[in-house]
Amino acid sequence: MLSLDHPYASWAVALGIGLLIGVDRERRKGEGAGRAAAGLRTFAITALLGAASMEIGGPVLLSVTTAGVLALTALAYFRTHSEDPGLTTEIALALTLILGGLAMREPLEAAALSVVVAILLAARQPMHRFVRDVLTQSELRSGLIFAATTLVVWPVMPDGYFGPFAAVNPRSIWTVVILIMAISACGYVAVRALGSRYGLPMSGFASGFVSSTATIAAMAARAVAEPALLGPAVAGAVLSTVATVAQIALVVAATSPETAVALAAPLTFAGVAAVLYGLLFAFRLTAPETEVPLAAGEAFSFRSALLLAAVLVLVLIASSALRTWFGDRGLVAAAAMAGFADAHATAVSMATQVAAGKMAARDACLPILVGFTTNSVTKIVLAIAGGSNAFALRVVPGLVFVLAAAWVGFMIALR
User: Fold this and answer.
1) Is the domain of 222 the same as that of 341?
2) pTM for the whole thing?
């Protein structure tokens, strides 16, 4: 068997690179006088030319050869650009030359890159169809926002504790913002992929990653406006609580793995309870012919993520202050008050204090569950006030069931 240490192995890799990329170009080359300038043989020879240039003269000769190939491809492009204005073949040919040269020094890296190039060339139609027909302007905007927050803003965020009581870590806060957007985007993609039959339950589940409280209020209004969708609306409302539990687990694990381990039992019990109760309505009360139109929109709410970050900063400062002044009792009181507005901020604020070494992971569980409880109270009030009696009679028991399961898990973990 020929190993990569063999003198001819690099030459074989270079030839393979040219053949692999050239196969796709040969299929699209066409025939007759209007055919493209480069096909299978041209790409194979170009890769070997790059390998020979690197072997004989190193990077200097490879650079000269590359300049020559670019000049030839430019001439070929000017000959055919009126029929085909694309530059894909010309750029691929130049890259094949460079990869052939790279194969003489880093054959595995060159081979891997050639596979990526071949995939990109072969996936032309699916990629074009996705960009033109599937991806919306709002989704593109969401993708650009996510890329900017992840690749531009996050690296420059300070990684230290600042502000009153040294309570706020900007990088941790921004990590939570990124997680919120990523999780919401995953839920949005699930809704787009699964279609409209279970659209309302899945929409409720996905929306719960942004705000389960707002989702329950929206589902309550939907059940009042369209009584026929009572079952799916209830399923969406309860499944949004699954999203709350999952999001708490993810953001806490990202902030403080110790706290996530300590919360494993309560969150598992609550999540299982929410899934069971939500699926009960999703499958029993969602008729097969029920169709819920789902309009494509933004993959996540950047404003909601920033709002959560602002709430989180306030909760962190308030929790640190109350803990300094009143001890653990002040911490629980702060968690309870913050939980009425948002359960995630309370959970992350406690996990942040654990990560900073200000409290033990086990001690963070009670404030987090207290915040989860008061947040459930807010959801119950909205379900009763905003929905019909039938909606409230179905959603409120589910919320109580989930809350009870979380506390049972907490009691079991204490033993």
Assistant:
1) yes
2) 0.54
